[in-house]
Amino acid sequence: MSTEVKVPTLGESVTEATIGEWLKQPGDAVAVDEPIASLETDKVAVDVPSPVAGVMGQQVVAVGDTVNVGAVIATIEAGKPAPAEAGGKAAPAPAAAPAPAAKAEAAAPALAAKSEESVDTVTTMSPAVRRLVLEHGLDPTKIKGTGKDGRLTKEDVLAAANAAPDAPAPAAAATPTPAASDAPGRREERVKMTRMRQTIAKRLKSAQETAAMLTTFNDCDMSAVIETREKYRDSFEKKHGVRLGFMSFFTKAVALAAHDIPSVNGRIEGDEIVYYDYLDVSIAVSAPNGLVVPIVRNAESLSFAGIEKAIADLGKRAKDGTLTMDDMTGGTFTISNGGVFGGLMSTPIINPPQSAVLGLHRIEDRPVVRNGQIVIRPMMYLALSYDHRLVDGREAVTFLKTIKEAIEDPTRLLIDL
Known about the structure:
CATH 2.40.50.100, Chloramphenicol Acetyltransferase
């Protein structure tokens, strides 16, 4: 008896996904609710659980195929895996030595099993792992995988590459390899874009084609915020169980500025402007599959600790690949912190249908003039990209100036000034 495994509901307005990876192969034992496949949607990766316990049966679709919600992708068969696959012992050999022909026949299944194992190892590698294997010229079948179900991870490949001694030149084979293939730095690899990367590309290009995008800049003295963090770092973490970071200061500053300049926290819908009396901040986070923007909801009413806890939770789940569609849906304003990667300045692209995005950058000591004296201060460039159809230049400059003033004098955040 077999049970069909169907694509689950993926979220509002999401009707299809791509098979990203098979987590179980035909013949593998499967427990109830155990993930058997990973689906890539426009925003997140979703695991497909097995509805019953049994043995993995037929895989109806292949990796890279597009499937609709409700479509059958595999079957689960009743019973237990075969003894050979479950680690059972083979029947004892007869006392008499087999003939050479019998030996060859007995060896054939073992060779076939080894070949199938090698194929499974290769086909279950992710694109990133496969790229590393090619770059280091390794045999993936000789690397012990530490991932789920023995799959190779990037760490496994890097460890094998570091442990492998410089191999001597192999002896000439029966069929000589063309000299051109030994030329260094001439490899090419074609990897199909993931659904998430395709969606990112489409949305960013659409933003450029739809919005009248403009970026305005300012710089910000981070001395006061840095001093505040150093002064209250330990007591804040001890009381709230989370570190006090820069993002909570900037999120509160955005909420303060958006109260005075509501168009920055609005959007265009047809011939109407939609204004929000709440601030749902999309926080750009780098995840293994690409840039994602989970949302801190009602940020205007959260405390510093509440914002930091929300950001820490979303960041962890983004790296673990456990964000849900609800975590990614909505958002009225975006903050993108390129400074964590060392970026000095950028022109961030807005996240449609939002009308603005704030770009943060690295903090570095620079000479500035204070009270007629040249002093060294930790400075950061701020960039506000906005849709000029909705936000005027005066409003954008005022919005960014309000953020700058709040960061340079954090007391403003407490007295709403």
